[in-house]
Amino acid sequence: MNFIQTRGIDPSKPKTVTFSQAILDPIASYGGLYVPEKLPELGQAFLDKHLNSSYKVLAKDMLDAFDIDIESEVIDEALNLYDKFDDAANPVPVVKVKENLYVSELYHGPTRAFKDMALQPFGIVLSSIAQKKNENYLILAATSGDTGPAALETFKNRANVRVACLYPDGGTSDVQRLQMVTEDAQNLKVIGINGVFDDAQSALKRLLASSEFKSALSEKNTKLSAANSVNFGRIIFQIIYHIHSYLELVRQNAIEMGEKVYLNVPSGNFGNALGGYYAWKMGLPVEKIIISSNENNVLTRLIKTGKYDLNGCDVVNTTSPAMDILKSSNVERILFDMFGEVRTKELMQDLEEKNVYELTADELATLRTCFDADFCNGDEGKAYIKDTFENDNYLMDPHTATCFKSYETCSDPKIKSIIYSTAEWTKFSPVIANALTGEVDAEDIIALESISNTAKLAIPAMVKELFTKEIVQKTIINKEDIEKEILDFI
Ligand SMILES: N[C@@H](CCOP(=O)(O)O)C(=O)O
């Protein structure tokens, strides 16, 4: 399968690229993104065939359907990393929480967030290509808290790759920060910036598109790629768990094969929701995708009104920091899929130049046939955490909690919903302890122990040990100094 570009083709670039080209150099013409030329049609036969397949067998067959230029042995090695998850036989448990409401737990990997679902295998794939080509890569990662730890974990000590990970200092939870600043490996650099996630992601996109930066790297015998969902190498692995979660509901006799369900996705950069949209287009029976946000509710406004408007908008720090994002990368891939390259280029240009774009009434109607959305503020989220724990005996993190509001406001309760849980409770313990008991803990470790006692849940060793590890990554800089800091590292 070849990959095409969301904003049309700059004549100096090839018309189409292979999968490995798209993941090694993920920014396309005019700052656009790569998308598959045509999605594979899996159809009912694929779902029937995999009703009783393991996650890895399902994943392998879905990746085969994309016909990507990665050797079968490399894909096998990459998928074997799911064996490290809590339950190798089922890395993504799907749990019934209420009548018609199921939670797909995507956080059972090494960094306790859904990013492991894609970044674990992606690390093997990218590093293998780099080794085979005998090239060195700098992998940029911009994070609001989950992508960073998962990218560092997957690339740690891997051959031919180095990682520069940018995070907003003060804009993540303490556990997320510790996961990054305690990572000790020669090939990893963690850089806190005085700014917000959007500053980190804008720098990443600018550097990925900068020929000057690329030639400065090439003097150091290094090429450039990225670990974020701008890279289709991330998205391809984020389609699989939507199909798996659906099949789990069939296996649990919660739905009949072919019955439509809602996919309810906490959303920041929109990679998770895009994976669900592609799965739907490939044949998954979906009623609608519900997009859940926090107070940074630009996606809700887009889907309700057709206007993506950043004027007068500043990112606010919330209790669900991984979604403290205003410039959401993957909406662009949806725009391309629905409205084509000319319109996508126009809309993205409006956003870059005027900080706003507006869909026509027809375009908004098209968008709304697939998506609905709502946002949930911190207090509402805490109320859902407490209520769901006390009444349904289910403990969830603040990102997952945002979905409980949109579940109520956007879905027909007679139709089953899958809510995607993107992070474990351990990553946001002060918010959760506060929701459960009203306590205000000065330190995460106290909140973790309190929740562990209340909910009778063990704190995983990899989280507990963060509090005694040495902090080795101490760099905090202004956003203007990012490029220099990275070049000094290489
Ligand atoms: N929410 C993310 C932000 C980056 O998203 P990505 O899917 O593009 O990697 C985070 O937690 O880092």
Automatic annotation (TrEMBL):
CDD domains: Thr-synth_2
Top-level EC class: lyase
Metabolic or biological pathway, per its Swiss-Prot or TrEMBL entry: Amino-acid biosynthesis; L-threonine biosynthesis; L-threonine from L-aspartate: step 5/5
A Gene Ontology term for the protein's cellular component: cytoplasm
Domain Tryptophan synthase beta chain-like PALP: 97-336
Keyword Amino-acid biosynthesis on entry: yes
Cofactor: pyridoxal 5'-phosphate
Nucleotide-binding recorded as keyword: no
Protein family per UniProt: Belongs to the threonine synthase family.
Protein name (Swiss-Prot/TrEMBL): Threonine synthase
Provenance organism: Sulfurimonas marina
Lineage per the UniProt record: Bacteria, Pseudomonadati, Campylobacterota, Epsilonproteobacteria, Campylobacterales
